[in-house]
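Section 5.1 Outputs to date
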Amino acid sequence: MRVMLRARLDTQISNEAIKNGTLPKLMQSVTEQLKPEAAYFGPSEGGRAATFVFDMQDSSQMPSIAEPFFLELGAEVEIYPVMNAEDLRKGLASLQG
């Protein structure tokens, strides 16, 4: 299932992760693990954020995906199902029949 993960990073903890070099390593590790179709990084609600869109095969993957953000960056994490335009067209077409 296509999902979007949104992680809002704690500013003080992510400042330290930038200074000690762990933030780039964590983002690279997460990107290698998730193999996202899209990944975005930028400000959100006055702090740093990372957004990944990827295919989650099973909900049991949630701990291994989210815990590094919680443990290493003090992040607030949301994971929810999303659709691309093709998925939306298919879903809406099923309502017609």
